[in-house]
Amino acid sequence: MRVEIWSDIACPWCYVGKARFEKALAAFPHRDQVEVVHRSFELDPGRAKGDIQPVITMLTRKYGMSAAQAEAGEDNLGRLAAAEGLDYRTRGRDHGSTFDMHRLLHLAKDKGRQDELLQTLYRANFAEERSVFAEGDERLVELAVAAGLDADDARKVLADPDAYADDVRADEREAARLGATGVPFFVLDRKFGVSGAQPAEVFEQALTQAWGERSPLRLVDRGDAEACGPDGCAVPQR
Amino acid sequence: MRVEIWSDIACPWCYVGKARFEKALAAFPHRDQVEVVHRSFELDPGRAKGDIQPVITMLTRKYGMSAAQAEAGEDNLGRLAAAEGLDYRTRGRDHGSTFDMHRLLHLAKDKGRQDELLQTLYRANFAEERSVFAEGDERLVELAVAAGLDADDARKVLADPDAYADDVRADEREAARLGATGVPFFVLDRKFGVSGAQPAEVFEQALTQAWGERSPLRLVDRGDAEACGPDGCAVPQR
């Protein structure tokens, strides 16, 4: 079974939802047969690389809420994150483009390090004092290395704005096609969807349901197969 | 869309079928949105590591055919392989356990090098003079390195018989559950199956049909999602 998770590094509910999903997965009896793939979704796809602002400022501008309301929202998120065992800095975080991070996540996927890099980026963005947006490419290289990637591989991707750009956009188109309007968005075997950072019990239910409804295959061709089996291979007749 | 391909390195139809599938995929308009995953299937799962014999001998014993018939079968396979642009040594190949190669393919999957290693192993087994069975672990390390893996990573896996052993067996159980009795066996989005080295047109038809029938998702929970979207994030209420 395969679970695809669309998310953005700048999305606090994605950070929390990943932990909730992982809790459900750890308790799922068939967890060894579940493959998790992370997909890209930028909340702010047009944002320029240098356009960085404090999270509280972004929240007041985007929602028209007061700074006190924005801070209360962050405090609440901090409590919900802590309930999942996650660190969360409620003050002093900043906000910017995540496009380059998504490109690196596709590099990491190719290298079998995707989950490690996503977790490293979430932690850096939500829990660490240093910015993931304001310190330039070498900060991202450092985080890529912490996730087990090669520094030069990461540098090459960051230096070439086209590298993995199409992969990011293909993920985003696929999210739209599947009906996702926000993240985190979980897709099980391309059949079931879970929207948002639902409680672990909802993920447990989704995993159980998707597992139970794994469908029998429809064979596209039932003619004589040129194949090998335990008793030997079909012998070519010409 | 995802295509999973169960195969064995010792299976000539898998070698040929992979090329036919790839021909169809190259012509498929949505090929950039198709992910290919290779799965393990041993034709001879109980075979001891040191149990190596010439292919012709294996064929005569397994089918009770004459050496001349076995050689004619190999000649025909060689012609079919050539038609797909593949080299195929019709004489002098040997046969043995592929378990360690499958374990290495799972290492390669973790490192994003699975397709490279499978192609390297196929070529080594079917087209190169040197044996992939008779020269010990360092021969496999050499092939792993040729596919872009780290030599020490490969050595560690080969030195530990448990490394990735469960992954190989899980793939094989999954093949049985999906109804595969032989390989190559192709599964599209866990919905459509193609058995054997079918002509490229059959793979084209399967890709087109599976693409057209990608199903809408069923949402497991439609309640208020704790999520972020283009217009901002849900604000936690507690």
What is the topological layout?
The structure is a homodimer of 238-residue chains.
Chain A: E1 2-7, H1 12-26, E2 35-40, E3 53-54, H2 55-63, H3 67-83, E4 94-95, H4 99-110, H5 114-127, H6 137-146, H7 151-159, H8 165-177, E5 185-188, E6 192-195, H9 200-212, E7 218-221, E8 228-229, E9 232-233
Parallel strand pairs in A: 1-2
Antiparallel strand pairs in A: 1-5, 3-4, 5-6, 8-9
Helix pairs in contact in A: 1-9, 2-3, 4-5, 4-7, 6-7
Beginning-to-end CA distance, first to last residue of chain A: 39 Å
- In oligomeric terms, what are we looking at? homodimer
Order of helices and strands of chain A: EHEEHHEHHHHHEEHEEE
CATH third-tier fold name of chain A = Glutaredoxin
Name of the CATH superfamily of chain A: Glutaredoxin
Identify the overall geometry of chain A. globular
User: Helical stretch count of chain A?
Assistant: 9
Number of strands of chain A: 9
Structurally, how many domains make up the residues of chain A?
1
Task: Tell me the helix content of chain A.
Answer: 40-55%
Radius of gyration of chain A: 21 Å
Biggest interface, chains and residue tallies: A-B, 75 and 75 residues
Spans of chain A of at least 5 consecutive residues whose pLDDT stays below 50 are none
The major β-sheet of chain A equals: 4 strands, mixed
Summing up helix and strand content along with how strands pair, one would put the structural category of chain A as alpha+beta
Query: If classified by CATH, what would the architecture of chain A be?
Result: 3-Layer(aba) Sandwich
Mean pLDDT of chain A equals: 93
Tell me the β content of chain A. Answer: 5-15%
The strands making up the biggest β-sheet of chain A line up spatially as 2-1-5-6
CATH class of chain A: Alpha Beta
Domain DSBA-like thioredoxin (chains A, B): 3-207
InterPro entries (chains A, B): DSBA-like_thioredoxin_dom, Thioredoxin-like_sf
GO molecular function (chains A, B): isomerase activity; oxidoreductase activity
Protein name (chains A, B): Protein-disulfide isomerase
